């Protein structure tokens, strides 16, 4: 078939929309005119899951296409903004006296908090890249930290099974110490903003096998969810009112967050389930903050509670799309499972290929790609909808510990025990930039939601930006 | 004020009173009461000095009592947090130091070269024929002694049919035939009851392997499809080796450890 040269014609000078008509060189019109929104949304075109990068012909050459059938070209709107790759280390923030175990940016990217083995949580000033506050109070290693979706509170859990809440603006403790678990806290997760704009409830998972939902306003435990027989490794609060928890007893349990009733148990893994990721993770983390609207100086989200809730709800609905939330879980049995926990007990797909245990899985912010970091020195990318294998990113020489996506889903940064961080391009599926500089293993990595900075902390006690 | 040792001399010659020990004991018992009576009655400068001295004595006594109490108890050192902070995902795993990894690699290479495989129960007592096989006398006069009966637990396959009784040399009694084994996963520390697929190797003799005799140290193959393990290619693993860790003929069940 002769390649048709598309020519855009805009007969109706409509301000908002453009009518496009594909025309042949000879002048014969091909098909009927269709309209397209005028906003300059960058699109990516896919034929049978292969992206059209160079030209339609080249892409089709690799595939057997029947010339009689109608060819479906699927377009995917890409993120409007682009995040530039981080290229160098701007500063090395010292201050912790023991290894840095967890690092997290606030949902707007305004604050940075890091928990460490010296029992303190430190807040860092991002504009000057110097230490701001040191929050003392824990008596053992600070294992996990979590920002509330409105960015006004930080919860930190320690190895002595205590949870503290901090105010990032002053560095002081807010409310009471939350005690109740009998063994250390493995994971913390706040209730999403669009379900409750006050950011009141916090879920904590612990080695003792129970999950506690805390009321941070009253400072007490609201519900205790016990059913797991071994340590709960990860807990995620979904946007549909369901809570997901994965555990070392090889199961994932789905609970109703309203009354704490167990809905479903997802079985299938053959060893400990280490990590989970929800397709709507990124949007639940950032709440009402839209990364496209980020400014150079990150600000707090402003607006009344109702406005914030609406905005968060809008963003959530947009990312979620039509189907229910998808959950991917990675385990010590070297495989990942893709589930639709709200609907089905059976997994959608079992993703095999890794040669060692999987430490972290993450959905990209636009939910199209799943990245899994494993102890076999590689990161594998999978399709976010079907779970099909896309590619392997090799380059690290030792176990990959943590990964983080940039807000536009184009770049991925990974920190590993070989003390380097690597930035990968998700489109070309190759290494973009190598970031050496740490002296010892890198335990925690995070990319700020406004895309400006990457923070990483590790065994060498310093935080690098 | 005696000038000479006549008191001691008398003691040496005649000994003490018969109730001396009793009196001594009772006097010591009265001593604290006497001291407190004296302390109460004293007045003036003498009293001040005495009370000061007594106070110091009391403090000292209390300290020694407390030290004795804490002698055997071990207290948790609350102040110090242990070194070697590790993130939550590494907590339940033993981190291997780099030196250990290298030495382990070398050791594994050496073992592979030597052909020795690592099993949880490396050495077992070899079982002699008289222990495992019992002589069965047959014939009209019970003189023929060519039949043998297996006295240990054994495994026969699914499609097993006995040879015609006149010709079978080895008898494996139905009561000693087992189909399932309790297999423990060494890392998960969970035990599953899995069906046996076959006997891979009996360390005592290849004859026992062919017969299917299961004793301590035998490597058997078990059906692990229940566990849900998967290979890298995505295929489901349904058979794995396990080594028997108990004496099944004594316990009535087969306990094994999975060889991962």
Q: Please, what is the CATH homologous superfamily of the largest domain in chain A?
A: YVTN repeat-like/Quinoprotein amine dehydrogenase
**Residue-averaged pLDDT of chain B:** 87
The major sheet of chain A is characterized as: 4 strands, antiparallel
Low confidence ranges of chain A: 1-15
**What do the pLDDT scores of chain A average to?**
84
In whole angstroms, how far apart are the ends of chain A? 53 Å
Written overview of the protein:
The complex is a heterodimer of chains A (465) and B (260). Helices cover 6% and strands 43% of the residues of chain A. Chain A is built from three helices and 38 strands. Chain A has a four-stranded antiparallel β-sheet with strand order 7-38-37-36, with no helix packed on it. Chain A has a four-stranded antiparallel β-sheet with strand order 8-9-10-11, with no helix packed on it. Chain A has a four-stranded antiparallel β-sheet with strand order 12-13-14-15, with no helix packed on it. Chain B has 260 residues and is of the alpha+beta class. Chain B is built from seven helices and eight strands; from the N terminus they run αααααβββββαββαβ. The longest helix of chain B has 26 residues. Chain B is elongated and about 115 Å long. Classes of the chains: A mainly beta (465), B alpha+beta (260). At the A-B interface, strand 16 of A face loops of B. Chain B: This is Ribosome biogenesis protein NSA2 homolog. Chain B: Involved in the biogenesis of the 60S ribosomal subunit. May play a part in the quality control of pre-60S particles. Chain B: It is found in: Nucleus, Nucleolus.
């Amino acid at each position: 078939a002769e390649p048709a040269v598309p020519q855009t014609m805009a007969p109706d000078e409509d301000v908002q929309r453009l009518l496009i008509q594909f025309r042949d060189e000879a002048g014969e019109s091909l098909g009927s005119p269709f309209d397209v929104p005028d906003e300059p949304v960058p699109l990516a075109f896919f034929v049978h899951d292969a992206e059209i990068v160079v030209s339609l012909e080249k892409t089709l050459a690799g595939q057997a296409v029947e010339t009689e059938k109608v060819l479906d070209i699927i377009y995917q709107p890409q993120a409007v903004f682009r995040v530039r790759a981080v290229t160098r280390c701007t500063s090395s923030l010292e201050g912790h006296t023991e290894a840095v175990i967890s690092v997290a940016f606030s949902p707007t990217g305004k604050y940075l908090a890091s928990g460490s083995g010296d029992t303190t949580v430190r807040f860092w000033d991002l504009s000057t890249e110097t230490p701001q506050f040191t929050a003392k109070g824990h008596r053992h290693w600070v294992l996990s930290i979590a920002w509330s979706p409105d960015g006004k509170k930080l919860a930190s859990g320690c190895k002595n099974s205590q949870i503290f809440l901090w105010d990032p603006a002053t560095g002081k403790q807010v409310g009471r110490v939350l005690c109740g678990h009998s063994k250390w806290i493995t994971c913390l997760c706040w209730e999403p903003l669009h379900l409750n704009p006050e950011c009141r409830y916090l879920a904590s998972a612990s080695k003792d096998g129970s999950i506690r939902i805390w009321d941070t306003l009253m400072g007490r435990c609201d519900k205790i969810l016990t059913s797991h027989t071994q340590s709960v490794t990860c807990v995620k609060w979904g946007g549909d009112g369901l809570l997901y928890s994965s555990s070392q007893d090889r199961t994932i349990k789905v609970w109703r967050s309203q009354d704490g009733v167990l809905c479903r148990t997802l079985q299938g893994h053959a060893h400990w389930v280490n990590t989970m990721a929800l397709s709507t993770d990124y949007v639940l983390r950032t709440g009402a903050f839209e990364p496209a609207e980020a400014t150079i100086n990150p600000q707090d989200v402003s607006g009344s509670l109702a406005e914030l809730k609406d905005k968060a709800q809008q963003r959530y609905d947009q990312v979620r799309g039509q189907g229910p939330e998808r959950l991917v879980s990675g385990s010590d049995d070297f495989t990942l499972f893709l589930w639709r926990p709200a609907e089905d007990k059976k997994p959608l797909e079992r993703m095999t290929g890794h040669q060692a245990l999987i430490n972290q899985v993450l959905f990209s912010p636009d939910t199209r790609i799943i990245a899994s970091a494993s102890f076999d020195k590689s990161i594998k990318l999978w399709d976010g909808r079907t779970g099909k294998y896309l590619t392997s990113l090799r380059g690290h020489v030792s176990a990959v510990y943590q990964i983080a996506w940039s807000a536009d889903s184009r770049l991925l940064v990974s920190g590993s025990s070989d003390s380097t961080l690597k930035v990968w391009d998700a489109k070309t599926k190759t290494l973009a930039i190598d970031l050496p500089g740490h002296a010892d293993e890198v335990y925690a990595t995070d990319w700020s939601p406004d895309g400006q900075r990457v923070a990483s902390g590790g065994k060498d006690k310093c935080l690098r930006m | 004020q005696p000038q000479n040792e006549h008191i001691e001399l008398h003691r040496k010659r005649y000994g003490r009173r018969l109730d001396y020990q009793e009196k001594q004991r009772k006097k010591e018992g009265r001593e604290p009461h006497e001291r407190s009576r004296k302390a109460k009655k004293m007045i003036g400068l003498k009293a001040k000095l005495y009370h000061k001295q007594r106070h110091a004595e009391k403090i000292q006594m209390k300290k020694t009592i407390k030290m004795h109490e804490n002698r055997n108890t071990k207290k948790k050192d609350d102040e110090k947090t242990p070194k070697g902070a590790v993130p939550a995902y590494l907590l339940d795993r033993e981190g291997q130091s780099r030196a250990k990894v290298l030495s382990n690699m070398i050791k594994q290479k050496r073992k592979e070269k030597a052909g020795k495989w690592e099993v949880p129960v490396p050495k077992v007592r070899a079982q002699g024929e008289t222990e495992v096989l019992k002589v069965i006398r047959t014939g009209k006069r019970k003189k023929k002694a060519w039949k043998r009966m297996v006295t240990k637990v054994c495994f026969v396959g699914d499609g097993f049919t006995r040879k015609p009784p006149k010709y079978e040399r080895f008898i494996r009694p139905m009561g000693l035939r087992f189909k399932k084994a309790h297999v423990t996963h060494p890392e998960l520390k969970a035990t599953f009851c899995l069906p046996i697929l076959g006997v891979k190797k009996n360390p005592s003799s290849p004859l026992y392997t062919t017969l299917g005799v299961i004793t301590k140290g035998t490597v058997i193959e078990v059906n692990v499809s229940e566990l849900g393990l998967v290979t890298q290619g995505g295929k489901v693993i349904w058979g794995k080796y396990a080594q028997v860790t108990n004496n099944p003929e004594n316990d009535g069940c087969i306990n094994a450890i999975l060889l991962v």
